[in-house]
Amino acid sequence: MLSPLWDRIKQLEALTSKQQVEIRKLKRDNDEMYATISNFDELIEILRASGLGSKRSSGRFSESDEDEDDNMIETEYMELSDLPGDAVENKPLLYEYEYFDDSEIFGIAPSSVIEAADSAGAAILAAMLGGQRRMLVDVRDAELTNNPEILAQFLELSILPVAAGLEGLNSERNRVKIVFPTVAQLLEYRKLSALAAPDVVALGTLNFGSLEDPDALIILVAPSPEDKEEFEMMMRILSPDNPEDTIEQPVVLLNYHMSGMKNMPEPVRSWEVIYHLRLLSVQYLAMAEGGEGEEMTESEIEDMFLEATSEREEALPEMPGSTSAVTSLGDDSYSEFEDLASDAAFVDFAEEQEKAGVVPGTTRAMVIRSYPRPWHVFVDTSPDEDADFEVAATFEEQPNQDEVNLAIVNCLQGSQEEDELVAKEMKEALEAGQLDNVADRLNRGLEGGGVWGRYVSCSLGG
C-alpha cells in the first residue's frame, strides 16, 4: 500500500526540482526581456527628441502604427504598379530579417554558481550522449570551495538532467551514484540535499559503496590534493592494479578546489574536460589620453606596475580559498573584488600614476568550456557598471596563461577603441547641430572624459 505512494512522492520531488530549474531560467529570460525593452524605449525617446523621423523603409513596424503602416505599404505598391513596362514586378514589398544569438554559439558567462551548475549538467548529458566515458568537471570558485550548501546545490543541479533521463528506465543500471571522499562530507550533503530519491540518486564514499551494479553514472567528488591518503584511494579506484576491477560505467570527476587539476596523474589528466570554469581578476595599465606618461616605454610601465601589484598583494586580505584575488560568481564575492579599487594602497598608486598619464584599472574575466563547445575567454568590458561579459577569444584546446592574457588585452583594447569611435561620432553630431535637443543629456556623458588610451600591461590573478 505504501510502496506506490512512496514512489509517487519520489517522482514529485524529482519533478519539482526540474521545474525549479526551468522557472529560474524563465525568470532570467524575463529580466533580460525587460532590460531590452527599457533600452529600446530610451533609444526611441532620444531619436524623437533629436527630431529624426520614425518612418522606416524596411523592418518590422510597431503595433500602434499598424493601420498607418498598412496604408504606406499599399501606397508603395500602387506607385510601383503605375510604372511602365516590366521594370518593377507587381507585388508587395518583402522584408527579410536575420537572427543572430551569440549565446547559442558561444554560450553565456554564468552570473552565479547555480547557473554554472545548470551548464555543467547540460554538458554532462551531452558528453554521455556523445559517447564520452571518462569526464572532468573543473570549477574553481571560492564560494563553491568553502560553502557546503553551495556545493550540494551544484551537485544536485549538475546531475539532474542525467537523473531525470535514467528515472523509470527498465534497465539494470538506472541511477546516478555520487561518491564523496569522506563519510562526513556524505552526511553533510545528505543534510543539505533537497533530492530524496535513493532509487535514482545513490550516495557512497571512497572506501564504502563506491561502485554497485545499478549505477549507470559515477560522480566522483575529488578530494583535496592535500589529503594524500584520500587522493591515493581515489586513484586506486580509478586505476586499479587488476584490469578486471576497472570501472565499466561512465565516470565524472568533479574538482571544486582552487588548486585545479594540475596535480592529477595519468590517466586522469588526459580525460575529456567537459565543463571548466575559472575566474580571473585582471589588473591592467592604460595610457590616459593626452597624459605625459605616453612618452614612457612599455617595459618601464610594466616594471612600475609589477612593483605596485606586489605592494597591493601585501596590503590586501586574500580571498577565501585562494592565493590571489580570485573573483567568485556570487554578488557577495564580487563585492570583495570591487573593494580592490577602494584599497588605500591601490588608491595611492592610482593617483600617483594618473598624474603621470598612466591609469591602472581592474576588471574580471572567465575561462569557460562547456561540452561540446570549444574553450572561450570572457571579459567584463564594463567593470564599473553591471557585468557585461563579452567573448574575447575562442580556442579549440585549453589555452595556456599567455594565450588567456593576450586575449584579455586585445579585448580591452578593442572595446576602448570602439568607445573612442562612438565618442568621436557623437561629438561631430553635436558640433553639426544634429542633436541639439538632446545635447545636454549627451554632454553629461562626454564631459567626464573617460576615454582611455592604449592598454600596455595586464596581470591576471586566479
UniProtKB/TrEMBL annotation:
Q: Which domain of life is it from?
A: Eukaryota
Q: Which residues form the DUF1995 domain?
A: 110-283
* UniProt-recorded name of the protein: DUF1995 domain-containing protein
